[in-house]
Description:
- By secondary structure, the protein is an alpha+beta fold.
- The protein has one domain: Imidazole glycerol phosphate dehydratase, domain 1 (Ribosomal Protein S5, domain 2).
- It is 33% helix and 30% strand.
- The chain has 4 helices and 10 strands.
- Strands 1-2-4-3 form a 4-stranded mixed beta sheet, with helices on one face. The chain has a 4-stranded mixed beta sheet with strand order 5-6-10-7, with helices on one face.
Amino acid sequence: MAPKARKASFSRKTKETDITIDINLDGTGVSSVQTGIGFFDHMLDAFSRHSGYDLTVKASGDLHVDGHHLVEDTGIVLGKVMAEALGDKRGIARFGEARIPMDESLAEVALDIGGRGFLVFKADFFAPSVGDYSTQMTKHFFESFAMSSGINLNMKAEGDNDHHKIEALFKAFAYAMKRATIIESDSIKSTKGVL
Length: 195
């Protein structure tokens, strides 16, 4: 019997944003990302390429206010589409971790796809923004993702350059997710029998 396709699509429309994300966990890292925030597009593209997930993101929103609602809601939708694509999580490795350097910066991510969303985030940023992307939204994006996906994320980054730290975080997130979602058995890795 062929394995179940781990693909999903999820849309969310509010008075502030309109977002649709398609994902294929068994893809080749092909992406098409359009959020209207250049640096954020770059980060989501990096996530796709380094996780190996095919990712399509179409997001629009009230950027005339600022990027907060769009980045937050993209995190929510990415979390929901991830949960849908994972299904009952049968056979996945469940845990993943990665350490990624970028020049002077180093990011570390450890995660558990255990059904309980939680974020521990330790990174300080020096500038208010990178391009038109607010650096403080990095933590908020991952918090939104963690809570809507039921994934426990522990993330930290050190370095002098905010661009490098954020990019290293997204790449470490990608590799940790890739490792945690590998199918390595036919069982559910939990003493409870469910994740």
